[in-house]
Amino acid sequence: MSPRWEPNPDIRTGRHVAYHLHAHLVFVTRYRRGIFDDAMLKRCEEIMREVCGKFETELREFNGEADHVHLLVHYPPKVALSKLINSLKGVSSRYLRAEYTGRINRNGLGSVFWSRSYFAGSCGGAPLTVIKQYIEGQKQPI
Fold first, then answer.
1. Which tens digits make up the pLDDT trace of 63-121?
2. CA 90 to centroid of chain Cα atoms
3. What pLDDT, on a 0 to 100 scale, did the predictor assign at position 139?
4. Of 108, 87, 40, 103, the residue nearest 68 (C-alpha)
5. Which residue ranges does the record assign to the Transposase IS200-like domain (predicted)?
6. What is the DSSP track for 79-118?
7. Is residue 103 part of a domain?
8. Domain limits for position 106
């Protein structure tokens, strides 16, 4: 009797695709101004979860400090990370500036909330060394 195959709940499927894509994103406030407190971080997470939902992505983890936030996003291959990031930063900036005007203006951010730069790293799955070894092992003698 062969062992029963169990599907991996982390691997999503579409019509013609199976995927398991994660990105670690870091956004920094303009001039690294320390403006976040716990309530503002919670609101930022809510906004970013909404944006992710509209892109059919999942915000798996969110956290931050006074001057930056970290996100772990599970996304489908049809989503361009640059477009997701643009929307995450743009929408959160609009809402946070509207809701926390006094705090943001006191810190000299004006109309720009986030730094123009960001960090995006792919993550999840096996380490690169393991994947390289696997691919190397696929060579068949000619």
1. 999 999 999 999 999 999 999 999 999 999 999 999 998 888 888 877 889 999 999 99
2. 14
3. 64
4. 40
5. 18-138
6. S-HHHHHHHHHHHHHHHHHHHSHHHHHHTT-TT--EEEEE
7. yes
8. 12-136
H or E segment to which residue 63 belongs: strand 58-65
For the CA atoms of 103, 68, 110, 59, what is the dihedral angle to 10 degrees? -90
Query: Would 39 be classed as within a structural domain?
Result: yes
Taking the model in full, what pTM does it have? 0.85
Question: Could you say which DSSP state residue 1 is in?
Answer: -
Instruction: Give the chain's domain count.
Output: 1
Q: Burial code of 91-128, b = ≥16 C-beta within 10 A, e = fewer? A: ebbebbbeebeebbeebebeeebbbeebeeeeeeeeee
Query: Does residue 6 sit within a domain?
Result: no
CATH code for position 131 = 3.30.70.1290
In a domain, residue 115? The reply is yes
What does the block give as tokens for 57?
Answer: 């992505």
